[in-house]
Amino acid sequence: MNTRGTGTRRFDIWTLVTLGGFALVLIFLIYPLADVFQYSFTDKETGALSLANWAEFLSRKYYLKAFIHSMFVAVSTTGLCLLFGIPLAFFTTRYRIRGSALLNTVAVLALLSPPFIGAYSWVTMLGRNGFLRVALASAGIDLPPIYGPIGIILADSLQYFPFVSLMTAGALTTIDRSLEEASENLGASSARTFFRVTLPLVLPSVTGGALISFMMSLSNFGTPMIIGGNYLVLPTLAYNLFTSEIAERPGMASTVSLILMLCATGVIALQQWASSRRKYASMLVNRPVRKSLSGAASCLAHLVCYAIVGLAALPLAVVVFFSFRNTNGPVFTPGFSLESYRMIFFDVPKTVANSFLYSLVAVVLIALVGTLLGFIVARRRTMAVKVLDPLLMVPYIVPGTVLGIGYIVAFNRKPFFLVGTATIMIMTYFIRRLPYSVRSAASILKQIDPALEEAGINLGSAPGRTFRTVTLPLMKAGIVSGAIMSWVTSMNELSASILLYVGRTMTMPIKVYLSVLDGFFGTASAMSTILLAVTGIALYLVNRWAGKSGTSAVVAS
Amino acid sequence: MTNIRIVDLEKRFGDVKALADVNVSVGKGEFFTLLGPSGCGKTTLLRIIAGFYRQEKGEVWLGDERVDDVPAHRRDTGMVFQNYAVFPHMTVFENVAYGLRVRKLPKADIERRVAASLRTVHLEGYEKRTPDQLSGGQQQRVGLARAMVIEPRVLLFDEPLSNLDAKLRVEMRDEIRAVQKQLGITTVYVTHDQEEALVISDRIAVVSGGRIQQVGAPWDVYKDPANLFVASFVGKVNLLDAELGAQAGPGLRWAKAGALELMVPAPADFAGTAVKIAFRPEDAFEDLDAGTRNTLNGRVEGSSFLGTVASIDIDCAGTRLVIERHRPRAGDIPAPGAETHFALAPEALMLFDAATGARLRSAGGEA
Q: Which residue of A9, A166, A362, B102 has the smallest Cβ count within 10 Å?
């Protein structure tokens, strides 16, 4: 019966969870974001309601340019993601490509790597003193330094194209082979079949991947900060406006934040619309098979796949390589050593410890709270839960920079003095990751028959005990792999925490960022390598734990 | 043993009235079935008894206790689910022991009772298996063992056989019936399968549109349906729109259904003339001797052979009717196009008010 669970209810443990959810959203989301709104719409001097900030944004070229830059970067990135992602997906799912599992793993690793490693690595290669650029210059090829839009787009697209490739590949493997065979049987060439049958069928997934890439690129802070040079985009503009020592403009920063959120909301709305418009029920009778290619065609397919993934892996490899190079302060010297690692562990052990401590505490909270809230979202559709559900999704459209600004403003006064504490770092990780955790718990629950819980209750087990003895054990695998993913993203968080840290609460991504700014590439490389290794291990664990579904969980989140 | 009483019950889902005016009384140890098409409210009623839904109006009594505000986990009902709901992360033993552990029984008692319960459902030796190693029928046996091992006040079955294949369904049906009689636990059983309901039940409540249409023993529900819905839902029936006419004999009247003229039992209290006549295919006879019978001639349209029965479609002066020939011998089944005839006793014809569907009983009482 589809009416399951709509009966009149009594007060139980889930009522408490619902109330807790509201409290959480109110304090850590609505309250700080309300401040962002308030700053944006009030006059700094008089405190009166005012549209001055918005008028200024719309009238000054400096601000409008950042908006145009953001759009240009995001659109170009998305285009490149499609260009890289679709062929890779098509070739690896439809043809036998040697080492396609490895290609996939590397692509996911690139996707999950800290959001600025790519940027920083390209700087070491093609920056002002980049080794590649210097080498090319001595060979007579003069490249301009990579700072600016080209650099951002390059780094972003090489990180985010796996969204497109993985989602498209997922769709390509669930198309019934008979459909393509029917097309060929009716006389269409394979090219015509691809463009008229296959592509339209996977289009919803392609669009989905493209929109996520767009959104990630739009709200990315670390990459434009490191490789953008003077080329300001909305997140870096907001950051500068907020932290600038000369003329701090919180009102303007808030306005830029809101515009960023508005764009993100638009993208989400577009995604919702796109995914609802075209949904093909798949009756998977005949799975598609991988064809063998031979000769030139095979060479070409391999070349394309390896070139795309190789390009994505290159910055990661460079970072790892440089982490083992000898350094003398900011300068790399010939030979290899563990000097950079020694520096980290002797000079900034607290930073490493902080990163692990904060992310682990956050993950425990995320898994716990996400599971409980996921349960009410999936199982208890009361009026209150129906209101709470979309609120829980809000962090999804709040770029890290915006959340950071909101937190600084809201938690630096009575009753919450939290700025500079470990608590606020943990809460930031927690809130940013919560939507994914709630969604994933809810979707796991949707695959668990509610009758199992009813059986537990019917046999005399109270709702809390039933959840513990029946529901939770069945959710365990999903929760653990979700938690590992949350751990990775928390370890690599930069855009919000960069605004909220103090010396005591420095984390690895922040240290990497600062080291890059100061030119200490050795430290940055070693720190990045550690983050990368953690990401790799986590990925391995997820695959061990959840098998193939682990990878799809990555894409889904 | 516990009896169940449901008084003036009403249940809504939003604006939709799922149940209305439900008054049911299930006796101690009785096997009581809720029979009806999908969406009729039978499962809703079962879930209200189990405590998964709260009714808007009315009372639910288990024995002397009014349980309206007793949460589901304290109702002490044992439910068997349509899709088994066997805990996939537990072994067969752990599944069956679940309710006993909740009740904090000593370990030795748990082991003894689980073993006895598994023996009852013929699953001894399966204790250590996990559900994914069991067939659908075996999983449902685990579900049954798990529900009955706690010796609940009432057993509740929510279409427990609908996911099993036809042969297993019959086997399990008989087993459920046997176990229930052996334990004597008051049972409410939900099904949409009228044959299953007829075979398994002490009494049946036919449910449609959220209302109880008729409560009675299988014989009564089949032979003496209270209204048109019950007549057509339980068993097969031929339906004819007809106008009542003149007196045809003592207690009989003529009825005109299209081109057919039939003698029907005269209804006792009925002022109108528009009726529906219903008769069951098996009530048509071959022999035409007795003069008090309706004789119908027609042309055979088609037939199907079902083993013990042959079902024959006949066009009688423009009205298409289905009759059955039992234990058909070679040559009994006429070829399409052949002329045939059959007889209907007036007592075999049931009359219903064409407007309300209510049964029009004759003055003489039961047919």
A: A9
Q: What is the distance between the alpha carbons of residues B216 and B214, in angstroms, rounded to a whole number? A: 6
Chain B: residue whose CA lies nearest to A475: B89
Nearest to A458 among B44, B50, B53 (CB): B50
Of A1, A459, A473, the CB nearest to B43: A1
Same domain, A132 and A277: yes
Residue A329 lies in a domain: no
Q: What is the ipTM of this complex?
A: 0.83
Contact residues, chain A, for B73 at CB < 8 Å: 457-463, 466
Binding-face residues of A in 454-483 toward B, CB within 8 A: 454-463, 465-466, 469-470, 473-474
pLDDT range class, residue A329, cuts 50, 70, 90: low
- The answer to whether residue A178 scores a pLDDT higher than 50 is yes
Structural domain containing residue B296: 236-360
Give per-residue pLDDT as tens, A156-167: 999 999 989 988
**A515 contacts: CB under 8 Å, gap ≥ 6:** A521, A523, A524, A527
Q: Given a cut of 80, is residue A317 above it in pLDDT?
A: yes
Quick one: average pLDDT of A106-114? 86
In this prediction the pTM is: 0.76
Shared-domain flag, residues B112 and B166: yes
- Last residue of some domain: B211, B232, B253? B232
Q: What does residue A6 show for φ and ψ, rounded to 5 degrees?
A: -105, 15
Query: What residues in A contact B102, CB-CB < 8 Å?
Result: 459-461, 465
Among residues B232, B252, B271, the one where a domain terminates is B232
Q: Which of A15-29, A389-403, B130-144 has the least mean pLDDT?
A: A389-403
* Residue carrying the six token digits 């003036």: B8
Supply the range of the domain harboring residue A209: 62-315
CA A365 to chain centre: 19
- Residue A278 predicted with pLDDT over 70: no
Instruction: List B198's β-bridge partners, or say none.
Output: none
Residue B157 pLDDT greater than 90, yes or no: yes
Q: What is the three-class DSSP state of A258?
A: helix
**Domain total in chain A:** 2
CB B226 within 8 A of CB B214: yes
Q: What is the pLDDT of residues A536-557, one digit of tens each?
A: 888 887 777 665 444 444 444 4
Same domain, A72 and A208: yes
Cβ atoms within 10 Å of A404's Cβ, excluding its own? 31
Asked whether residue B131 falls in the same domain as residue B109, the answer is yes
Tally C-beta pairs within 8 A across A and B.
Answer: 84
**Same domain, yes or no: B19 and B76:** yes
Beta bridge partners of B297: B341
Instruction: Answer yes or no: do B205 and B67 share one domain.
Output: yes
Residue of A2, A381, A459, A471 best to disrupt the B interface, most CBs of B under 10 A: A459
CA-to-CA dists, residue B90 to A442, A458, A459, A465, B365, angstroms: 22, 17, 15, 15, 57
* Cα nearest neighbour of B48 on chain A: A7
Are the beta carbons of A459 and B72 separated by less than 8 Å?
no
- Asked whether residue B174 falls in the same domain as residue B114, the answer is yes
**Structurally, how many domains does chain B consist of?**
2
Contact A451 B44 (CB under 8 A): no
**Which of A458, A465, A466, A476 to mutate: most B Cβ within 10 Å?**
A458
List of chain A residues whose C-beta atoms are within 8 Å of the C-beta of residue B78: 458-459
CATH number of the domain at B32, please. Answer: 3.40.50.300
pLDDT at A208: 83
